[in-house]
Amino acid sequence: MGKSPEKHGGRRTVLKRGSRPAQGEGVCPASRAASSEPCVQMRTQVRKGSDEARERHGHEPGGVPGEFAPMRLQKFLARAGVASRRHCEELIASGRVSVNGQTVTEMGFKVDPASDAVALDGDPVSLGEAPVTIMLNKPAGFVTTMSDPEGRRCVADLVPLEQYPGLFPVGRLDCDTTGLLLFTNDGQLGYRLAHPKHHVDKTYVAHVKGRAGKKQISKLRRGVTIRGGLTSPAKVREIGSTPEGSILEITIHEGMNRQVRRMCSAVGLPVLELERIAMGTLHLDGIRRGCWRVLSDGEVEELCKAASLGE
Ligand code: URA
Fold first, then answer.
1. CA 276 / ligand 1 centre spacing (Å)
2. What's the CA angle centered on 165, arms 163 and 166, to 5 degrees?
3. Distance of alpha carbon 251 from the chain centroid
4. Does residue 148 have an active-site annotation?
5. Considering only CA atoms, which residue is closest to atom 4 of ligand 1?
6. Which of 54, 253, 269, 271 has a CA 20 to 30 Å removed from the CA of 89?
7. Is 178 close to ligand 1, i.e. is its CB under 6 Å away?
């Protein structure tokens, strides 16, 4: 049963041995004291991942997320969608490609996409935006949209759109749900992560009204009927309690609208607070509420694997 009392989301809570402490208390360089006050975090250093992941995510060893590092000319052309890499080599060899006005026929020639002007038959060739994926610790009270006609606060206000244009949220969290929300400008990755068929586990901590009994927990584990459909089996455990009821950790891979709230209500345990703490192997650890950070290549690689992109 419960151990030492802790503060969690403004309630006195008792967390069980082995359960995680309150989230959103990590280090934020922007050092804003109030956890409800949004802050912007500087981009992190790129850690080493596999070449495959770097290739897919658009930057090379030592590169910076959201920016392309120098790369070989044939790769540049292929990535810009000119042709296959082999065909691009033929184009280079035949003298049709120039860099900064000079024809280049050398195959290993490196170009810097940030500063070099590449042209094919005199027509400029460019790469567009480099893919980047960031993780936000969403505060309550923000709708998951990039703009809101009703003027409500939306998650777009919390992410660095000027630095990384084209970011969009991967899936959604309810206005009152807090925690891990991914943004990417990589359409394929976003689609795969949000699609239930790709089975990316999402883990939530739910404060519910009422103490969860064994029967309720096993019903949640087996699947419950919400809106006429049976939910897939879930991982559910009680990790603590509050004066109002239980704290449940629930892992699902589907993304039905208000799924966790509906599942808990279906077994008589209305949700009082809901936080998403993990997606796949990615955990919110260390990101304060309202803060974000760029994912490393290794983290993107893990997500790709979870979403079957790595196969
Ligand atoms: N399930 C919910 O009920 N709400 C969320 O925001 C996410 C999952």
1. 8
2. 150
3. 16
4. no
5. 258
6. 54
7. no
261 lines ligand 1 (CB under 6 A): yes
Cα 56-62-67 angle, rounded to 5 deg: 60
Mean pLDDT (whole number) for 91-103: 95
Cα 213–276–198 angle (5° rounding)?
100
What's the confidence (pLDDT) of residue 35? 39
Cβ–Cβ under 8 Å, residues 272 and 12: no
Query: 63 falls in which pLDDT band (50, 70, 90)?
Result: low
Q: Is the CB of 260 under 6 A from ligand 1?
A: yes
Of the residues 177, 249, 273, which should be mutated to test ligand 1's pocket, given the most ligand atoms within 8 Å of the CB?
Answer: 177
253 CB near ligand 1 (under 6 Å): no
The CA distance from 177 to 261, in Å, is: 10
Ligand 1 lined by 173 (C-beta under 6 Å): yes
Tens digits of residue pLDDT in 248-296: 999 999 889 999 999 999 999 999 999 999 999 999 988 999 999 999 9
Question: Distance (Å, rounded) from C-alpha 139 to C-alpha 149?
Answer: 20
| Interval 162-173 mean pLDDT | 91
What is the best residue among 253, 261, 264 to mutate for testing ligand 1's pocket, by most ligand atoms within 8 Å of CB?
261
Among residues 112, 121, 157, 174, the one annotated as catalytic is: 174
Dihedral (CA of 88, 89, 93, 98) sign: positive
Dihedral of the CA atoms 13, 16, 21, 22 (nearest 10)? -30
Amino acid at 179: G
Which residue would you say has higher pLDDT here, 47 or 254?
254
pLDDT at 142 (0 to 100): 97
